[in-house]
Amino acid sequence: QVVESGGGVVQPGRSLRLSCGGSGFTFSFYGMHWVRQAPGKGLEWVAFVSYDGSSKYYADSVNGRFTITRDNSLNTLFLHMSSLRAEDTAVYFCAKAVRECTKTDCYARNYLDSWGQGTLVTVSS
Amino acid sequence: EIVLTQSPGTLSLSPGERATLSCWASQSVSSNFLAWYQHKPGQAPRLLIYGASSRATGIPDRFSGSGSGTDFTLTISRLEPEDFAVYYCQQYGGSPRITFGQGTRLDIK
Rounded to whole angstroms, how far apart are CA atoms A48 and A68? Predict the structure, then answer.
């Protein structure tokens, strides 16, 4: 399972760091994503980090402001959010991607088989 | 970026009825890398279907997925009370830059 923490109320322009702890699986084997849901809206993908932290991708809406990192020794995923805006107000979910293995190879697949319940970030003065 | 459009926006049905939810992609989804999720308020989203038609572990067989290319469907054969929720499709072909549809709300009639 995965469990998010670190949400709260923050003023526009300030920073916040979210954490996501993984348990019950070998955390270092899997890519991880952050997905958010603004009030009354649908799911929006935010960022991805590969199993070893070497590859990162961001949505255009957060690129340059948010940084995704992971510490495999702590089984923890992070999202460092800076220059926060009102439109970043949302519930933030972390989610585990999948590995599909044949007899000879394993492939990363970015559908999400384990999600946390989310942590609410409110950007308001 | 592949844009996913779901239809209808809201579907009102009664328990025992059949639900058909659609998801259209703006371009072909490679290898039919399309997933469906169920989401209830205050809960974690739940993976239902991956690879367009494969049920995830523990998902009842009343849920089925079909389609290929740009047109995909989630069918719930006989609605149970716990099935009323919001459903999202998601594509994961070719890049970790995944995208979601805007969701279909399934309401009790």
Answer: 7
